[in-house]
Amino acid sequence: GWGVWHRELVAGRIRGPRAALWRALLTAIEKPYGWAVRRRNARYDRGRAASVAAAVPVISVGNLTLGGVGKTPMVALLAQWCQTQGLRPVIISRGYGGRGGWNDEAIELERRLPGVVHLQQPDRAAAARDAVSLHGADVLLLDDGFQHRRLRRDLDIVLLDGLDPFGHDRLFPRGTLREPVESLARAQVIVLTRADAVSADDRQRIRRRALAASPSALWLEGVHAPQALVGAGGELSDPSIAAGQRAFVFCGIGNPDGFRHTVASLGCVVAGLEVFDDHHAYSAAEVRRLTERAAAASADWVLCTEKDLVKIDPSWWPPGPKPAAVRISMELIGPLDAWHRRLEAVVQRRNVP
Q1: Nearest partner of 303 among 347, 245, 216, judged by Cα
Q2: Cα dist. 68→253, 291, 315, 323 in Å?
Q3: Which one, of 98, 233, 156, lies nearest residue 118 by Cα?
Q4: Long-range CB contacts (< 8 A, 24+ apart) of 107-110?
Q5: Do domains 58-224+331-351 and 225-329 have the same CATH topology?
Q6: What pLDDT, on the 0 to 100 scale, is given for residue 353?
Q7: Which end of the chain lies in a sparser environment, N or C, as judged by fewer CB atoms within 10 Å?
Q8: What share of the chain is helix, strand, coil (3-state, %, to 5)?
Q9: How far apart are CA 111 and CA 203, in angstroms?
């Protein structure tokens, strides 16, 4: 699909005269896109564009680049922390990629966080009002909210993917940056996700560059830790049961390399990989073909992300290698006392009239 092709093109993995021509065209489009992004940010920075304050604290989880960086497990971590504090969190997202209902990330969060309300609406300021008035929210978790500046937030958490933290240093569509790296100045917390996938030297290099843009930000590192294998019918298994076995992997997410690294961390042998566009809608025929490919590769498992599995009817799986999704939790490394103090300071304002 287009998303896979674009990712390979901007990374320079597609070569030849035609690819060079495409990159030149994308460079020409990058300039007006960058102008529009900088103009919009300047309007908010100078107060010319109005932001709306919610009645309760707002914590935003976002990123600089297109693609998956671990926002869903990070939102789940925050929601669970809020619950341990006796708070009622409500998750708010735009709902990109949905087809006639909730999108895949929302369905995944609903399965992971039963009882936590999730509102999907392009007008997130209106969703914030509904969260408080209709659902009794004590704190709002803004999923993918860094670029959504209309709703004021009390804490901006930005995730950087260790495998591609700065989007090839080019704005979309020539690269995968949604806005310039200097926009990190708005972040109060920066988390380097998939930190275990890069060297200590690379982690320090990324940290220096990020904190140069936001010197007062709290720096944390995160690991995408396999928490469970989720079967086709929703049953949970210990991920260690797949260690030493062969797995055919498929995914329709923004960062397939990151998921491949996660599967390898299970101790699996990756017997094959098929990548689809982000938010891909699977069919029964595709599921049958993937299972046949897995069987041909002598795989014991067909593994995907939870975001993929929630879009596949359990009855579509034919006999063959065992299908499962890898449930990921975000494990944070760093000054966790400072992290908890920041969260506590934010949620304490819920009692302010």
Answers
A1: 245
A2: 6, 25, 28, 22
A3: 98
A4: 107/310, 107/311, 108/72, 108/306, 108/307, 108/310, 109/72, 109/75, 109/76, 109/79, 109/143
A5: yes
A6: 39
A7: C
A8: 40, 25, 35
A9: 33
Residue 349 — pLDDT band, cuts 50, 70, 90? confident
Contact residues for 20 (Cβ-Cβ < 8 A; gap 6+)? none
Q: Report yes or no: 293 and 103 within 8 Å, Cβ to Cβ.
A: no
Tell me the C-alpha distance between 191 and 240, whole Å: 27
pLDDT at 276 (0 to 100): 94
Q: Architecture of 58-224+331-351 per CATH?
A: 3-Layer(aba) Sandwich (3.40)
> What are the boundaries of each domain within the chain?
58-224+331-351, 225-329
pLDDT of residue 48: 95
Give 255's pLDDT tier (boundaries 50, 70, 90).
confident
Q: What is the CA radius of gyration of the chain?
A: 20
The tokens for 283 are: 């069919």
What's the rounded Cα separation, in Å, for the pair 97 and 143?
14
pLDDT of residue 95: 77
Q: Percent of the chain at pLDDT above 70?
A: 97
Q: Which of 68, 72, 152 is nearest to 116 (CA)?
A: 72
Instruction: Give which of 125, 104, 110 is closest to 253, Cα–Cα.
Output: 104
**Domain boundaries 225-329, corresponding CATH code:** 3.40.50
